[in-house]
Amino acid sequence: MNKTSITLFTLAALVIVSAIASITFGPAEITSSELMACLVGNCQSQISNVVIWQIRIPRVLVALVAGMGLAIAGAILQNTTRNPLADPYLFGIVSGAGLGATIANITLANHLTVALPLAAFLGALFSVIIVVFVAKVIQRMEQLLLAGVAVSFMLASITQFILYFGEPFATNRVMFWLMGSLARVEMSNFYVIGAVLVIAMLIVAALHRQIDALLLGDESAASLGVNVDKLRLLMLGLCAALTATIVAYCGGIGFVGLMIPHIVRQIIGVTTLKLILGSALIGAIFLIWVDVIARSSLPHAEIPIGIITSALGSLFFLFIMYRSRPIN
Amino acid sequence: MSTLINITSLSWKIQQKNILHNISFNVRKGEVIGIIGPNGAGKTSLLRCLTNQANILANSNISGSVQLKNRDLKQYSAKEIAQHFALVMQKNDSIFALSVQDVMNMGLLPHKSFFALDNDHDKAQIALALDKVGLRHELHSHFNQLSGGEQQRVLIARALVQASQILILDEPTNHLDVYYQHQVLQLVSKLHITVIMTVHDFNLASLYCQRLLLLNKGELISDGTPEEVLAPKQLSKIFGLPCQQNIDAITGATQVSFYLEENRLEENRLEENGLVENKIIDDKLAAPIDTQCASGSLSE
């Protein structure tokens, strides 16, 4: 077994250990022996049984697939655009989702359980369609990121305009939603995100050689038989669907897609197959533990998970810049 | 030698400007062809048409035909074209830390189906190709950390893994030191496959190509042996500088030198002004060439 396989197997084991261990963390105290008993269907306390099976496990599983999905989306985007700073969030996906969520909150306040994720998803897809359209018109793939930032600001300003003149409660709800949280997720969310994730990973695994070919430039890839424009559009659509699904249920969780692939490149490799497998595993471990911090660090409140990922992400970013500074 | 590629009346217009105009020539199997000409002559555009990159030939501004093995290139799929043509570009940096192995793996792409992983046969092919360019020991090195010459050799090895019959190189000697220029071109000319490359330096082109194509303003001006194509009158007209053809005393290759009138030696000024067409064999005037490179075979 080579070094990469050993690293991947170790990470996979860590994902499983993290997922199980993290169930014990939270406001209601659950000991590890109690957890083990409940997991094998031998639960002594009814309350613990409910907490474990209906609250903690869905939450940990959603953290697992959301972490995987956000990290993979970042990895795919970075490899297909050859830009290590590409992140699904920079493509206006969150602003689009925010606009969708705002409209849902203002107009469909009584049906938010169904309307909010749906509207957020549609908003996210809408923003990606605009970004791709702009990039097609200007015919410069390198400027996709700049187009994303511009579209992001445009959609955010529309959202703010609506919120400013809308009712204060809706504003509060949207603000909290945008900060990201796994507090209200259900098992069904896990199935939906998981299904999109599996499809995305299969497509990427099928096309991993094509995506790798892009790493030495478009012309080199085209000479190897790759239809560069089609491939990039497909990958962008895939990232959008993946991120939009996650954002729709979990709100804004930034920096995961930027940070995790960067770590994977250092320890596993830069080619697509290694990058998405490594990103999936490290992304899952990361988000499981960040959610533990979110739900158990304050005594009577939760910290929105997006606040923690953004804080960690920005520190990580500054650290990377510090480490790659020129040394005289 | 059998004919591999037939190009007939190929023209390419972008906004009323002729990128290529009425170009016709054939490529026979095993030929090493150099495309020369001034900047903007259409050299790289001609290469792009050959590899039908991003379906360039389907472009409505292109007329004429490119046939590969008597079949129109447009009828080939992108994958089939990649199985016939391997391209080595001028600049191939990656911002990510690709290893030489990662770059070599790319060459397998035209022969792999979806989901396919690398097998032992692939690994053997890669090792063999790197052996041919003398870089097997660099398999795990970072591609970006290799010298320009080594990067070019890795890309040539990738082309060998691609197992294409025709190797296309766009300015393979750009950014290379004189030693690596000779090393790369000698390697390419001894692969015993069909090679079509653009070369900026006429004397290098002459030394390593059996046949040269001279392009100017999108037109094919001359097609023949280096001696025929590097005719001083023709070159002077295109480049606007007096030019002289020599036979290099060491390599025996046809060489040309351009000069400004004011730089001519005093005794030569006595000659009639204008273009000098007579061939001379003269050590002093022949373009100097690194004796080490010319006398022995090149190696690291």
From TrEMBL, chain A:
<keyword id="KW-0812">Transmembrane</keyword>
<feature type="transmembrane region" description="Helical">
    <location>
        <begin position="188"/>
        <end position="207"/>
    </location>
</feature>
<dbReference type="Pfam" id="PF01032">
    <property type="entry name" value="FecCD"/>
</dbReference>
<feature type="transmembrane region" description="Helical">
    <location>
        <begin position="144"/>
        <end position="166"/>
    </location>
</feature>
<dbReference type="InterPro" id="IPR037294">
    <property type="entry name" value="ABC_BtuC-like"/>
</dbReference>
<keyword id="KW-1133">Transmembrane helix</keyword>
<keyword id="KW-1003">Cell membrane</keyword>
<feature type="transmembrane region" description="Helical">
    <location>
        <begin position="301"/>
        <end position="322"/>
    </location>
</feature>
<feature type="transmembrane region" description="Helical">
    <location>
        <begin position="233"/>
        <end position="260"/>
    </location>
</feature>
<keyword id="KW-0472">Membrane</keyword>
<feature type="transmembrane region" description="Helical">
    <location>
        <begin position="57"/>
        <end position="77"/>
    </location>
</feature>
<feature type="transmembrane region" description="Helical">
    <location>
        <begin position="266"/>
        <end position="289"/>
    </location>
</feature>
<dbReference type="InterPro" id="IPR000522">
    <property type="entry name" value="ABC_transptr_permease_BtuC"/>
</dbReference>
<feature type="transmembrane region" description="Helical">
    <location>
        <begin position="89"/>
        <end position="108"/>
    </location>
</feature>
<comment type="similarity">
    <text>Belongs to the binding-protein-dependent transport system permease family. FecCD subfamily.</text>
</comment>
<feature type="transmembrane region" description="Helical">
    <location>
        <begin position="114"/>
        <end position="135"/>
    </location>
</feature>
<protein>
    <submittedName>
        <fullName>Iron ABC transporter permease</fullName>
    </submittedName>
</protein>
<keyword id="KW-0813">Transport</keyword>
Automatic annotation (TrEMBL), chain B:
<dbReference type="InterPro" id="IPR003593">
    <property type="entry name" value="AAA+_ATPase"/>
</dbReference>
<dbReference type="Pfam" id="PF00005">
    <property type="entry name" value="ABC_tran"/>
</dbReference>
<dbReference type="InterPro" id="IPR003439">
    <property type="entry name" value="ABC_transporter-like_ATP-bd"/>
</dbReference>
<keyword id="KW-0547">Nucleotide-binding</keyword>
<protein>
    <submittedName>
        <fullName>ABC transporter ATP-binding protein</fullName>
    </submittedName>
</protein>
<dbReference type="InterPro" id="IPR027417">
    <property type="entry name" value="P-loop_NTPase"/>
</dbReference>
<feature type="domain" description="ABC transporter">
    <location>
        <begin position="5"/>
        <end position="242"/>
    </location>
</feature>
<dbReference type="GO" id="GO:0005524">
    <property type="term" value="F:ATP binding"/>
</dbReference>
<dbReference type="InterPro" id="IPR017871">
    <property type="entry name" value="ABC_transporter-like_CS"/>
</dbReference>
<keyword id="KW-0067">ATP-binding</keyword>
